[in-house]
Specification:
The protein is an alpha+beta fold. The chain has one domain (21-335). It has 13 helices and 10 strands. The strands form 2 sheets. The protein has a 7-stranded antiparallel sheet. Strands 3-4-5 form a 3-stranded antiparallel sheet, covered by helices on one side. A hairpin with a 4-residue loop joins strand 4 (120-125) and strand 5 (130-135). Helix 11 packs antiparallel against helix 13 (325-332). The radius of gyration is 20 Å and the shape is globular. The mean pLDDT is 97. Bound molecules: protoporphyrin IX containing FE. Protoporphyrin IX containing FE is lined by residues 38, 40, 42, 159, 161, 168, 170, 181, 186, 194-195, 197-198, 201, 206, 210, 214, 225, 227, 229, 271, 280, 282, 318-319.
Length: 339
Amino acid sequence: MRVTPTKLETFRDDFTYTNSEFAIQRFPFPFPEDQYSYTVNIEPHALPGEPDSVYEHLFDVDEHYLSEMHERGLVLAESPKRCLAMPHMDLACWDLIERAMNALSADYPDWFKLSKEGDQWHWQNTLLDIDDTFTFGDSSTLPMPPMEYIGRQVQGDLALMDQRDGDLFMDAGIVTCPADWSLAFDAGMSFSEWHGPVPMAHELGIFERALKYLTAMQVNRPVRRLNWTLTVNARMDTSPEEYPHWGNDRASVTPDNVGEKVYLRVELQVIDRMPRSNALSINIRTYMASMNDLCANPDWARRLHRVMKDLPAPLIEYKGLTRYHPMLVEWLSQFDREQ
Ligand code: HEM
């Protein structure tokens, strides 16, 4: 059962992040088969999803809420450019505010409350002690720009894509926990441009098909997909801007500490059509669990071994696993005696 988030954990320095049993049980394990390859793995995000699962609501609020919001504040204080919105995205930002506030207040009425009188809105977020009244659509009545305002209250990174000429352009977002990509770098790029560095998928036609699917999306029909990588230590902010602070962590993995140091990092990506602006939003929600925690489940442990053992070399390289991948496979082999 979901409990009110109260703990404040760190994703840097002393890394006090931990998962409860409940969080591990509901972890979105991303491997349905023993082999992993890129596919157009988009499915409807049909709501409500299974109770207590990460798929139950449009926005999943879990035990790490306060910690992640605190971490976002730290990143924004150091690098305000992690949040940006081009002027033509103003309406899309308000679309996102409406979508998020409606969903959060309906799904978690103990924590979020919204009342409206015409365009006068009253928003209360009791978890963060926020109580604001503002005029919907008028950014001057918010304490900060709309993208930052909503981004500081929703777990996971957010981006808004403008749709023009049958393509999508990353023209707004708040990105403080990326798996090695940068909003400032990708801003203004098209769908295939920002996916440029991904190996193998272009040749398989994955992005072409995905773009066709996304540009045809309808309002109130969100979709989702899972993506994954590995991170050394439970570090949320693995951005290229911060690479000097985390790149060397990869050299700290040893055969003795694989289980506690290496985290599976899964992104639940929920993509949604914005009603007024026709933009698309994406919420990239990151879940991390250590190899030790995941491998307490024998099915997951065996599957992890098989997937990692046969991971194509270009993916090992692209995901930045080269340095410790053989050590990880060796460590995981203890859970797969039938191999
Ligand atoms: C419209 C929303 C989307 C956004 C904003 C987005 C953004 C990104 C970004 C920024 C990257 C990292 C690229 C880099 O290395 O610099 C990425 C990777 C990737 N994206 Fe997307 N993407 C979206 C939708 C999709 C969809 C619908 C698919 C469906 C197949 C997809 C498949 C992938 C794959 C396979 C990777 C490589 C991930 C990895 O191996 O870690 N993306 N995406």
